[in-house]
Write a structure and sequence with these properties.
single chain, alpha/beta, five-stranded parallel beta sheet, two-stranded antiparallel sheet, 9 helices, 13% strand
Length: 218
């Protein structure tokens, strides 16, 4: 079933480290027929030789950041901008607008094709980089801080100190809630998460074909 391209929403998925945004994105793609866009991967694509960010970054920082194959060597680039706020700002000023423009183009393509229920966009700094200006809604994936810490320690091998340090540098719960129109509670298991998404899709009357469970909703 082809959807009206105007009816396909573009939703931003955000939340703090350890909140399980990747699990939500995986469910949306595999079970709810969503197209997913990961801003980090888009940024990497645009840094490939010949792409727009690649050309601008090399022009700004020089060919010494390239490896033997002419690709941007990210550790070398990181070394140049680390501890130098002005250089880091210049790098962000190059990459962030390009990523947003590319994401808008990809959203337009998915809408033109009309084969997806929605377009889900995930970015580490979704709110901070102004993505709410180009998306229809933002959804906040919420998990209690102590649960996030336990997940990070178990899943990523982080220490409690490192986990808390990262969290302190991110937006707090109230800030996330103030920017987002919907909260996805991910404190329980994947079945509970699936049920919440099913309810949202029912409320929004979004058509999807659940490939894993053979369920249809209209």
């Amino acid at each position: 079933m082809k959807q009206n391209k105007k009816s396909i929403p573009a939703i931003g998925i955000t939340g703090g480290v350890g909140s399980g945004k990747s699990v939500v994105m995986d469910l949306l793609e595999k079970e709810f027929g969503a197209a997913v866009i990961l801003a980090d991967l888009v940024a990497h694509d645009l840094m490939e030789p010949g792409a727009i960010s690649y050309q601008q970054i090399v022009a700004e920082f020089g060919t010494e950041i390239l490896d033997g194959e002419g690709r941007i060597h990210r550790p070398s680039l990181s070394k140049i901008v680390f501890g130098h706020p002005e250089r880091l700002k210049r790098l962000n000023d190059i990459t962030h607008p390009n990523v947003k423009e590319e994401i808008l183009a990809r959203i337009a393509c998915f809408r033109e094709e009309g084969k997806v229920s929605m377009v889900a966009v995930e970015a580490a700094l979704l709110i901070e980089n102004g993505f709410e200006d180009i998306l229809d809604e933002l959804w906040y994936v919420y998990v209690k801080k102590e649960t996030r810490i336990q997940r990070l320690m178990k899943g990523r091998g982080y220490s409690e100190e490192k986990s808390r340090s990262i969290m302190e540098q991110q937006l707090g719960d109230e800030e996330f809630r103030s920017h987002c129109s919907r909260v996805i509670d991910n404190n329980q298991d994947v079945n509970n998460l699936r049920a919440q998404l099913t309810q949202i899709f029912t409320e929004k009357k979004l058509f999807y074909k659940n490939l894993c469970r053979k369920v249809y909703a209209e």
